[in-house]
Specification:
alpha/beta; six-stranded parallel β-sheet; 40% helix; disordered N terminus
């Protein structure tokens, strides 16, 4: 990218136009983010005005009252060069390709690059290998995955608030979220207080950092929970073949033979081995008639012959049935072992696959459920050795097959809000019924994927389900920041709110150039956690108090969506700033008094 183009990308977003191609939930959130948070002009390319979220996208300006910022709409079935040219990609500051299909996005990215060789591209891709190749091939191109951004939030919600979420920072530094009360005071280095969560609504980035119970800490190794130990293969095979009915039939047969052997031993004075031999022959129809035998021996012989005629075919039939069912279960990848304290994951599309992989890496047992055998995550689950149930999760028998009554959490991630709610209520009812019978166990933790915020609030009030997340809500801020030429490193979910971890350069002659780190901090909006300085990009965690920021610095910040939107214009370079060679050598300056919340 040339200097002029780069400077244009970093200019005030209100003077630029952005192009968004897509009609899904992420496209809707992204357009709203660009219009509401950044005040940018947006052109949206839709496949139709009626499919998916297209009607909502077209009405976004009317909802916000910002008629002057009404997104322009271009309708076309295919993203051809003519369509993209008509959308204005040649003059756009950035183009976002956020269709749900990787092939469509990659094809459109190549067309855009032919039309505008220097425009910034933001491409949504699920496949990480394909993403690396596209980013390297297309130059100024940010490749993001909405499911990868959102997955840690769903994992944390499923496992509980004390489950750490690891963040990717520059220089391979590892930081994680943690509950302050669960930290080891001798080994934890608290970087930032994230939120006070003990109220009805979380207070993010509080002024009083010591009051935050959810914090960000540095870590030096990512500890993973060991995968759950499984029984030996032989024991698993025996348990799979011996169904409940077969076990009952075998137990009844053994019990009858034992009683008969004892009676034969008593009446004929035989030892146990001889009595058992006689019992087996009699049951198989080889009994010797003895009219002079005692009555009890005659009755025993008759019962054995009759039982043998009835039990042996029954046991044979049950064994064949168990073998067939076992083979079908193994072929389908379903449950083959009794399981408890696991996570039932319903819907293994893009986001479901990411969540499943995260849970498995933590060593958490997972049972995957999907309506179709062709879902993206079904093959992944079988490759990981995880059981898969193919069926309609709104039906109680499907959830029972996944052992929902013994699970620790039910995570429902289909793309339909109503289906997710129906599945959650069905699963919670089955779990509560089992608990009432067993009178033990904690309540089921239910996590839903919900797009509509109002719908989520009504569900919380009506059904008491307060663990819900939106993939598009979590991912859209990162896509919007990438379109502005800024890098969002990761996101942190606090309830249904999201905090962004961003790496921001201090532009030459920008509002931040010459200021101090504590002047960037805005309680409730922005918190600086680290500074990268010099051309080598060394990360400094102990923020300097007497050193002003210079144009070669980069700030790593945690911010709300509104906080990041307000901070970005302060990093825009001044075109009239002198070259770096003409800047006086850096001097230690005495900073102005620090605000009380930083003391």
């Amino acid at each position: 990218m040339s200097d002029d183009t780069r400077q244009g990308t970093e200019a005030d977003p209100t003077s630029q136009r952005f192009v968004v191609c897509g009609d899904g939930a992420l496209a809707r959130r992204l357009v709203a983010e660009l219009v509401d948070r950044y005040g940018a002009a947006v052109t949206v390319v839709l496949s139709s005005l009626t499919d998916n979220h297209a009607p909502d996208i077209a009405e976004l300006a009317a909802e916000t009252g910002a008629v002057g910022l009404r997104p322009e709409v271009v309708v076309a079935r295919r993203l051809t060069g003519e369509v993209l040219d008509r959308a204005g990609v040649r003059d756009a500051a950035a183009v976002a390709l956020v269709h749900e299909d990787d092939v469509t996005n990659v094809d459109a990215a190549m067309v855009v690059r032919e039309l505008a060789p220097e425009v910034r591209l933001v491409v949504r891709l699920f496949n990480p290998v394909l993403g690396e190749g596209v980013a390297a091939m297309l130059g100024d191109c940010a490749v993001l995955s909405g499911s990868e951004i959102a997955a840690p939030a769903f994992v944390a919600a499923a496992l509980g608030d004390d489950t750490p979420t690891y963040l990717r920072l520059p220089d391979d530094e590892l930081v994680r979220t943690a509950v302050r009360s669960a930290l080891d005071p001798t080994g934890a280095e608290v970087v930032c207080g994230l939120a006070v969560t003990d109220g009805p609504e979380p207070v993010v980035l509080p002024a009083d950092q010591a009051a935050a119970d959810l914090v960000l800490v540095r870590t030096y190794s990512r500890r993973r929970t060991a995968p759950p130990r499984r029984r030996p293969r032989v024991l698993r095979a025996v348990a799979l073949v011996l169904s409940r009915n077969l076990r009952l039939a075998l137990a009844a047969t053994v019990g009858l033979f034992a009683v008969a052997s004892a009676l034969f031993a008593y009446t004929r004075g035989l030892n146990p081995a001889e009595a058992g031999y006689l019992t087996l022959l009699t049951a198989l129809g080889s009994a010797e008639t003895d009219p002079s035998a005692p009555l009890i021996e005659k009755v025993t012989a008759v019962v054995l012959v009759v039982a043998g005629l009835a039990l042996l075919p029954t046991v044979t039939a049950l064994m064949v049935d168990s073998l067939v069912h076992a083979r079908l279960a193994v072929a389908a990848g379903g449950l083959t072992d009794p399981i408890d304290n696991h996570v039932v994951l319903v819907g293994v599309g893009n986001i479901g696959t990411r969540v499943m992989e995260e849970l498995h890496s933590f060593g958490v047992p997972v049972v995957a459920v999907d309506r179709t055998d062709s879902a993206r995550g079904v093959a992944v689950a079988r490759g990981l050795g995880l059981p898969v149930i193919v069926g309609d999760a709104t039906r109680p028998e499907t959830l029972r097959a996944a052992s929902v009554h013994t699970c620790r959490a039910l995570v429902v991630l289909t793309s339909d809000d109503v289906t997710n709610l129906e599945t959650a209520l069905s699963g919670r009812s089955a779990h509560q019924a089992h608990q009432a019978a067993a009178t033990i166990g904690p309540p089921l933790r239910v996590v839903l994927r919900l797009f509509d915020d109002g719908f989520a609030e009504r569900i919380e009030r009506t059904f008491g389900i307060n663990q819900s997340r939106s993939v598009s809500y979590l991912a859209a801020p990162a896509f919007a920041a990438a379109m502005m030429g800024r890098e969002v490193i990761d996101t942190i979910s606090v309830g249904r709110r999201v905090l962004l971890v961003a790496d921001l350069p201090v532009g030459a002659g920008s509002d931040l150039d010459g200021r101090y780190c504590h002047e960037v901090v805005q309680p409730g909006a922005v918190r600086v956690i680290a500074m990268r300085t010099g051309r080598a990009g060394q990360t400094i965690w102990s923020l300097p108090e007497r050193r002003p920021l210079v144009r070669t610095d980069r700030l790593v910040v945690v911010a709300t969506r509104a906080g990041l939107a307000a901070l970005l214009p302060r990093t825009v370079p001044n075109p009239d700033a002198p070259p770096l060679a003409d800047v006086a050598p850096m001097r230690l300056l005495v900073p102005p008094p620090r605000p009380p919340d930083e003391s």
